[in-house]
């Protein structure tokens, strides 16, 4: 009898919704459901506030969908063959799977490994050397790089303005033309991309559920967490698993790193500390992609660090890992994979069509 009553209540509720739709509520209801499907820039429990000020560019369904389409559009490159997604593939946590260096026009190699994309709203600067200092400006670096996308901002805007579908999407996202008389301008282009990028939040790994008390680690994973906090966390600080600083990764090569931006001798060979979230999906590793596996990365920190870099006490901590701790650490790093993020259809290419 109770089930019959509940079914009757459900039918009455559906009938009420239909009645509301008949009197003009269809559009608000559709908008409400759209909002539920659109990712939001919200701060997970225990996290700091984002560095990106979204009050100046609030996420909307139309803006997010426009940014997603732009992210997967090869027309952003000079010859129409390279999209943002070419080097940032979702199944690889938006890194470039199986490529040590980023690939661009005519299959040319870049000079650094394409990092994974997640939690970008919490970064204060971007690129391995910190050459970009705002999320909304970050797309300009690959866009104008002659090896990567090789296009100009004016060239991209001209292509978008010639596409009636893009014209309609920009109007839905941002309204009528701005002060310069252009419906599609550089600010709107970059802000649409930023709405998509800023909502790429990865915060539902097994680690997150363990910290929240919703899931237990195995004994090996728990020991790995202890080893991580002892040997690695001073640079890869929880919960974002980066301290956002520039440090030596102990690799010896000709890339001067941060010094390219600052011009300071003391910044030679320093690179932005990458987040370890989804690290198991983002091989190959390091700024030059020289390591294919996490085992190789751990072995490097235990015994392959360039002698000049060993003066860093933080690297000395990593070098002191025992055999048992290294094994446990590898198990712990697997818990940082966020399957929900890796398979979230809202960020997928198919959803952009």
Could you tell me the CATH topology label of the largest domain.
Cytochrome Bc1 Complex, Chain D, domain 2
β-strand percent reads under 5%
Query: At the fourth CATH level, what is the homologous superfamily of the largest domain?
Result: Cytochrome c-like domain
Please report the number of helical segments: 14
CATH top level class name of the largest domain? Mainly Alpha
Number of strands: 2
Mean pLDDT, as a whole number? Answer: 89
Q: For this entry, what is the oligomeric state of its chains?
A: single chain
Helix-strand sequence: HHHHHHHHHEHEHHHH
Query: What's the gyration radius in Å?
Result: 23 Å
Distance between the termini: 47 Å
Low-confidence stretches: 1-5, 19-23, 29-35
What structural category arises from helix and sheet content?
A: mainly alpha
> What sort of overall outline do the alpha carbons produce when their principal axes are compared?
globular
Profile the largest sheet.
2 strands, antiparallel
CATH architecture identity of the largest domain? Orthogonal Bundle
Number of domains: 2
Helix content: 40-55%
> Order of strands side by side in the largest beta sheet?
1-2
Quick structural overview:
By secondary structure, the protein is mainly alpha-helical. It folds into two domains: 54-202 and 343-352, Cytochrome Bc1 Complex, Chain D, domain 2 (Orthogonal Bundle); 206-337, Cytochrome c-like domain (Cytochrome Bc1 Complex, Chain D, domain 2, Orthogonal Bundle), CATH 1.10.760.
């Amino acid at each position: 009898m109770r089930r019959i009553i509940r079914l009757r209540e459900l039918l009455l509720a559906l009938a009420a919704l239909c009645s509301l739709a008949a009197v003009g509520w269809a559009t608000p209801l559709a908008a409400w459901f759209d909002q539920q499907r659109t990712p939001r820039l919200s701060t997970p429990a225990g996290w700091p506030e984002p560095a990106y000020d979204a009050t100046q560019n609030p996420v909307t369904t139309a803006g997010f969908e426009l940014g997603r389409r732009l992210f997967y559009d090869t027309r952003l490159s000079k010859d129409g063959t390279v999209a943002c997604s070419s080097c940032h593939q979702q199944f690889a946590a938006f890194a470039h799977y199986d490529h040590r260096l980023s690939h661009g026009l005519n299959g040319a190699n870049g000079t650094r490994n394409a990092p994974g994309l997640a939690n970008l709203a919490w970064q204060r600067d971007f690129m391995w050397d910190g050459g970009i200092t705002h999320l909304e400006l970050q797309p300009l670096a690959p866009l104008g790089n002659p090896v990567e996308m090789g296009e100009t901002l004016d060239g991209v805007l001209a292509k978008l303005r010639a596409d009636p579908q893009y014209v309609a999407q920009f109007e839905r996202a941002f309204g009528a033309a701005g002060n310069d008389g252009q419906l599609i301008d550089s600010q709107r282009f970059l802000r649409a991309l930023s709405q998509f990028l800023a909502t790429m939040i990865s915060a539902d790994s097994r680690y997150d559920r363990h910290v929240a008390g919703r899931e237990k680690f195995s004994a090996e994973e728990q020991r790995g967490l202890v080893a991580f906090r002892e040997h690695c966390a001073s640079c890869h600080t929880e919960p974002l698993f980066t301290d956002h600083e520039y440090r030596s990764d102990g690799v010896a090569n000709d890339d001067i790193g941060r010094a390219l931006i600052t011009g300071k001798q003391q910044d030679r060979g320093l690179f932005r500390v990458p987040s370890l979230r989804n690290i198991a999906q983002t091989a190959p590793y390091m700024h030059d992609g020289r390591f294919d596996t996490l085992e190789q990365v751990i072995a490097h920190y235990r015994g392959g660090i360039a002698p000049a870099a060993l003066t860093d006490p933080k690297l000395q901590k990593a070098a002191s890992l025992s055999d048992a701790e290294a094994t446990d650490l590898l198990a712990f790093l697997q818990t940082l994979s966020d399957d929900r993020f890796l398979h979230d259809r809202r960020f997928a290419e198919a959803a952009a069509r």
